Structure formats: C-alpha cells, structure tokens
Amino acid sequence: MKVEIYSDIACPWCYIGKRRFEQALDRFEGKDGVEVVYRPYQLVPDAPETASPHRAWLAERYGPQSVAMDARVAELGKAEGIDYDFDAALHANTFLGHRLLHLAETEYGAAVQGDLKERLLKAHFSDGVDVGDREQLTEVAVAAGLDRARVAAYLAGEEGTAEVRAQLAEAREIGISAVPTFVFEGKWAVQGGQEAEAFLQVLKQVAAETGTAVPAANACADDACAI
C-alpha cells in the first residue's frame, strides 16, 4: 500500500497528523507493506526568502486570535510528544526544504525521507531553525544521513526545482487545498490531523480492498491548515 502525505514543513497540524498517523501505522498488522512518501505543499508560497518571527507574522495575518491558535496547537502537540516553541519559530519560505525532501526520496528512499521530514518539522517548530537557509538545512539533512557535499551542491544549484514545482502543481490539480492530506493508493483521501484510530480504520479498509471508496474524514479548521 502506498500512502502519499501532502504537507508543509511550516504547518503545525502536519506535525500532529504525522505523529498520529505513525501511531496508527504501528498498530496496523500490514505495516511492513506500507510505503509512506511525503509530497510538497506550500501554505505560503510567496513567503520571503528572509525569515521573520513566526509570532509577528501570524499576528499580522490572523490578528489577536493568533495567540490562542498557537496555544491550542501547542497543548495538543504535547499529547503527541511535540514540543512547539512558537516564540523561537521563524516564518520562512519552505521551498528549499521541499527540494531537500525530494532529494531524500529519490536518492535515499522513503524511510530516509520520513526521518528528514521529522527533523525538519522539529527544526522549524521546536528549535528555531530557519528552514529557508541553505546552511541550516544542510545540517538537518546531514543529521538524517544525507551526504554533506551532495546536499550543499544540490541546494546551491537548481536540481529538483522543476520536479517539486510540478508536484506542487499536481497537488492543486487533484484538489489538495488543505494539509495534511493523506492519499491512499492514489484513490482515497483523508484530510486533517485525525486521531490515530481514524487512520487505523482507513488503513484496514484500504487493505481489505472492499471495492468502495474509503470516505474522506470530515475536515475542519481545527485539524488542518488551509490557504
């Protein structure tokens, strides 16, 4: 079974959704036969290359409610073992990070890509790393097992740019409008950071090949990030 997860490095619900899906996968009897691949999506594709404080950016976009938004996500994250530090987090363009994830998938495989995704999310949300900075991205990639020289050369050039832009366009074409979105076998979609039990049920339904589409779980603003 192939599961493609559309998400953004700068999406807090994508972090929660990743952890919950992994909990479900650990409980799924057929987990050894599941391939998980991360696909790119950008919530703010026009974010500047120069990073800025997350708190200030969110307040400008959502006003006073931004504080409560961060607080709620931080509280929910604790239950999943995530330590959000929104005071340290930086608003940055995530395109380079998505290029790096593409490199990890194509040259190192899905497992390494998944590890890199986890490290990028932690770097962005917990460690105050600028995920739009080539040098800082290189350090995260090396920690995930990627070759330093290869990563530095890759990020310095344009490799992977066309491919990632094509994947971003494909996401729009198939109707991805909020993340995370989990696409099973290219047919069935679940949107949002659902509870682990919901993901487990979908895994079982898809594996059973019932011949009917698995209904997408109800999505709402509380468990997904939308444009």
From TrEMBL:
Residues 3-203 form the DSBA-like thioredoxin domain. Pfam families: DSBA. This is DsbA family oxidoreductase. It comes from the Bacteria. It comes from Kitasatospora kazusensis.
